[in-house]
Automatic annotation (TrEMBL):
Keywords associated with the record: Membrane, Transmembrane, Transmembrane helix
Name the UniProt record assigns to this protein: Aminotriazole resistance protein
Organism: Mesorhizobium liriopis
Positions of transmembrane segments: 12-33, 39-60, 67-84, 90-107, 119-143, 149-173
Length: 190
């Protein structure tokens, strides 16, 4: 019986990598086409799916969270027509990738229960990494002459931080239950 479980876990070792790439593609598409609330019409939308990179990071591991955020940003910027190589590939991609990486490093549901304290910690982590991301991305946009810094901070903060702060703690427990029911023998985090 233990050999069967070990074989099943070995088969599932690619699961988080593949799922993080699928989640990245879905994230980019959702950010490009499923943001109905326009904060600045045609430019900045309330990114209701901004919780996906931190959620993927917590559930599947910090590398998976980074992949989801980084590739999701690249896919989104290409689909939305806002791709700027230096900004999208370096600053925006890396900083949004960190919104998946940092929660995945600090929260591991296999090692700690997702109780009320953990959910509050997840919200605090999302707030902190979200603020860091918004400041860095806003500085890049200001440096490139696209938006004034404080203007970008306010609108990007509303766009990204609010959905991460609410969505990640709200959805992490049901998402974990779905993953556990799909893989009762467990899977490796990546």
């Amino acid at each position: 019986m233990p050999a069967t479980i070990a074989a099943a876990r070995a088969e599932n070792s690619l699961f988080p990598i593949v799922l993080s790439i699928v989640a990245a593609a879905a994230t980019g598409v959702l950010w490009a086409y499923a943001n109905p609330i326009q904060l600045v019409p045609g430019v900045i939308q309330w990114r209701i799916f901004a919780f996906l990179p931190p959620l993927v990071g917590i559930l599947l591991g910090w590398r998976s969270g980074f992949i989801c955020g980084y590739l999701g940003t690249v896919v989104w910027s290409l689909l939305a027509g806002t791709f700027i190589p230096a900004h999208s590939l370096i600053v925006d991609g890396i900083m949004v990738g960190l919104t998946g990486l940092v929660p995945g490093l600090l929260i591991n549901p296999a090692k700690q229960p997702l109780d009320r304290a953990a959910l509050i910690k997840i919200a605090a982590i999302c707030l902190g990494v979200g603020l860091l991301m918004v400041v860095a991305v806003s500085a890049s946009l200001a440096y490139l002459g696209i938006f004034p810094f404080w203007w970008a901070v306010s609108y990007l903060g509303l766009s990204d931080i609010v959905p991460m702060l609410i969505g990640t703690p709200l959805l992490v427990v049901p998402a974990l239950k779905i993953l556990k029911s799909a893989h009762p023998s467990g899977f490796a985090r990546f």
